[in-house]
Amino acid sequence: MAAHTQENLAPSKPPIWNDRRYRALFYQVFVLVGVLLAGAYIVNNTLDNMESRGIASGFGFMSKTAGFSIAEHIIDYQEENSYGRAFVVSLLNTLLVAAIGIVLTTILGFSLGIARLSQNWLISKLAATYIELVRNIPLLLQIFFWYFGVFLPLLPLPRHSYNALDSVFLNNRGLFAPQPIFEQGFSTIVIAFCVAFVGVIFMVRWAKKRQKGTGKQFPIFFMSVVLLITFSFVAAVLTGFPLSWEIPKLVGFNFTGGVGMSPEFVALVFALSAYTASFIAEIVRAGILSVSHGQNEAASALGLSRGLTLRLIVIPQALRVIIPPLTSQYLNLTKNSSLAAAIAYPDIVLVFAGTALMQTGQAVEIIAITMAVYLTISLVISALMNWYNKRMALVER
Amino acid sequence: MAEATKSYNPGHHPDLAPPSGAVGVIGWIYQNLFSSWLNSIMTVGAVYLLYLFLPPLFQWLFFDADWVGETREACSREGACWVYIIFWFKQLMYGRYPDTELWRINSAYALLVTAMIPLFIPAFRWKQWLSFFLLFVYPIIAFYLFVGGSFGLVHVETALWGGLFLTLVIAIVGIVAALPIGIVLALGRRSDMPIVKALCIGFIELWRGVPLITVLFMASVMFPLFMPEGVNFDKLLRALIAVMLFSAAYMAEVVRGGLQAISRGQYEAAQALGLSYWKMMGLIILPQALKLVIPGIVNTFIGLFKDTTLVLIIGLFDFLGMAQLVGTNPDWVGFRIEGYVFVGALFWVFCFSMSRYSQNLEKKLHTGY
User: Fold this and answer.
1) Composition of chain A by helix, strand, coil, percent to 5
2) B66 contacts B81 by C-beta, under 8 angstroms
3) Which CATH code for domain B82-97+156-365?
4) Counts of helices then strands in chain A (DSSP H, E)
């Protein structure tokens, strides 16, 4: 009898096909083999197809002469340059659009989000109208609207440009702004500024230490501004203002000199930032609303001024809520900049997945490179933002 | 004097009306528009801006617009030329689908709308059967109606499809097919099996990390290389697969959010009852998780619906693509803006109503725990 109970108490060992661990192993091997087989099938077919169509493989084409021109380039580029150079040029174009777009959309988005929370009924409703209007219309349509609908037909010829202060011109050839020219001695100003900056850092440290020790406050912000401006100004006076502006001039049918931005670029950046801003505005609004009212009341009970409450209490807590979705909006903007291909702004998709693909026919390599570029950008931005997010995250006991 | 010194009896004297400036229209205006100097300045500025922009806009849209006519000469060019939209209406809606066959698309629309209406009536009792019909039977009917080739219907090539019709087809097929794939991917991502998990994470992050355009490009140039020689891939099918892969990755993340929101107790209770993995997921976890993420699914659908416009880049003529195409017609040069405004307005109505619907759902489904 006793032996019987003993036997029953011993853990039952299931047969191998019912054991969770073996089952998991089996499923995984099954899935892996399936994926590998599918992959092998695709690779095999691709190789066959490429051979029968006479498409070369490998990345050798990157060093061959590209032979096409690129309308806009930040670094030097000629037709006889290689595909590799064309790749770098178009990548820089994509990054330029993304960088400027992110700056503009942040400014516009935060302003709209704050306007949406304004006590002024009209301002709040106007912001809401903008947000609802813009975010419910496809981005590509907006890009087309600004480019084909407004920029090309409605803006004047260069001769009748809209201009601001006779130095910034807008016409159907694009936007032209003065370009700063750094003459000899400008580096002195930069050095002076850097010295002042280091000084400010030390001053802030000292002021914080003093406040902790004695409780005395020091006008940090005011003194920093004074320090930075005085140093730079003195340096500028000593070197004789070594900075001049090259103002764009109308020569023949177009402007020369200054910084010129093509209508494609302006339309793209404009539409991208306007579109993304409508999403950021909602994120900012939600973030600010997420800070509970008690925090505000506690701050005023402590006697903090309105500005200090915002700076020390509300914004740090709101940022915690804002940053993760904001990151994904920045990523969206970067990825959406690929719509440039639709209005022929030479970004990486147009130049690489378009022209280069047509010329070489090496679809696999070129699409892989293009995708890898966006993947890398995505991973880098999200890694940076995760790092920042971790620093800002709530530190709990 | 006697009145001033009189003691007050509680409840014997009428409440004074609030000052006239604090209530009613004037009070509202004062509090919401002119409460401070800054507010007053902003109000005046905003009113001035509205005065600058709104009247010309309405003039252009409605009062100066041309509504009747057959040719571009009917348009005075002072306001919008809606004749242009009316003239190309059929192309914008159906692409180049043959005139005599348009009833097929219309009847599919009608069937879809009639079948959807009872879903929004709370008292309707056979919702499950209706959902089954919509998900499994309706697609087959719609496929035969659109493609034809049997049951006495003429075959219509997908190259002739276009306009709003094509946009709807891509968006709806994309999202409906993406949901089951997304669920499987989300389950895989939360699974204990390292290989399955790694594969799912890789798949999801790959598609989420690249723009839809590159996926579409990939589909249009690489898919033909993937297939054995002689197998020809329909252009629309390639775009559909691309959209499906892309939205499945986003759907997976939405579903994962729902899965994470279900408390551990639910899993443990299901296991304690002795349910197998699939029974636990199918009967306990997914019904709760999917209910939670319905708003997220609707939002994904809105995003996908707007993104379908990108198919014009690989040469399909969706709603926006059709507007672009008729905008280049030599007889009708110079009316692109009207086309964009029309397409934009329709997109806006679709997306805005869906987002309002999802917000309502969110409120309704928020049961407070």
Assistant:
1) 70, 10, 20
2) yes
3) 1.10.3720.10
4) 15, 8
A233 touches chain B (CB under 8 A): no
Q: Are strands A259-261 and A243-246 parallel, antiparallel or unpaired?
A: unpaired
> Is any Cβ of chain B less than 8 angstroms from the Cβ of A235?
no
The answer to whether B283 and B332 have CB atoms below 8 angstroms apart is: no
Chain A residues 48-87 within an 8 A CB cutoff of chain B: 48-50, 52
Contacts of B159 by beta carbon, 8 Å cutoff, 6+ apart:
B235
Same domain assignment for residues A217 and A315: no
Asked if A267 and A379 sit in the same domain, the reply is yes
Same domain, A346 and A206: no
Q: Chain A: give the shortest CA distance to residue B31, in Å.
A: 8
- The CA–CA distances, whole Å, from B167 to A144, B100, B161, B326 equal 17, 21, 10, 17
* Cα gap B185→B196, rounded to integer Å: 9
Q: A192 lies in a domain? A: yes
Q: What is the DSSP letter of A175?
A: E
Number of domains observed in the structure of chain A:
3
Question: Is B200 an interface residue toward A (CB < 8 Å)?
Answer: no
User: What distance lies between CA A26 and its chain's CA centroid?
Assistant: 44
Q: Can you name the residues that pair with A177 across neighbouring β-strands?
A: A259
One-letter amino acid at A128 equals: A
pLDDT digits (tens, 9 = 90+) for A54-99: 777 777 777 777 777 777 777 777 777 788 888 888 899 899 999 9
Contacts of B18 (CB under 8 A, 6+ apart): B27
The reply to whether A199 falls in a domain is: yes
Residues of chain B with CATH 1.10.3720.10: 82-97+156-365
Q: Does A74 reside within a domain? A: no
Q: Do A363 and B355 touch (CB under 8 A)?
A: no
A141 close to B (CB below 8 A): yes
Give contacts of B 297-326 with A, CB under 8 A: 302, 306-307, 309-310, 312-313, 320, 324
Pairing of strands A243-246, A249-251: unpaired
- Give the three-state DSSP class for A243: strand
A180 assigned to some structural domain: no
Q: Specify whether A37 is located in the same domain as A137.
A: no
For residue B81, give the amino acid letter: C
Size of interface A-B (CB pairs under 8 A): 151
Judgement on whether residues A272 and A381 belong to the same structural domain of the protein: yes
From A375, which residue of chain B is nearest by alpha-carbon distance? Answer: B209
A362 CA to centre of own chain: 29
Domain identity same for A287 and A375: yes
Q: Which amino acid, B202?
A: G
Tens of pLDDT along chain B (369 residues)? 445 555 667 767 777 888 877 778 888 888 888 878 888 888 899 999 999 988 888 888 887 777 777 777 777 777 788 888 888 888 888 888 888 777 888 888 888 888 888 877 878 788 788 888 888 888 888 888 888 777 777 777 778 888 899 999 999 898 888 989 999 999 998 888 888 889 998 898 889 889 999 999 888 888 888 877 777 778 888 899 999 999 999 999 899 888 888 888 888 999 999 898 889 998 988 888 888 888 888 888 999 999 999 998 888 888 888 888 888 888 777 788 888 999 999 999 999 999 898 888 878 776 654
Domain of A319? 86-150+262-392
CB A262 within 8 A of CB A174: yes
Q: State whether A377 and A272 are in the same domain.
A: yes
**Distance (Å, whole) CA A26 – CA A13:** 18
Are the C-beta atoms of residues A183 and A244 closer than 8 Å to each other?
Answer: yes
Rounded alpha-carbon distances, angstroms, from residue A285 to A124, A242, A276, A279, B236: 11, 44, 14, 10, 40
Kindly report the pTM of this predicted structure: 0.84
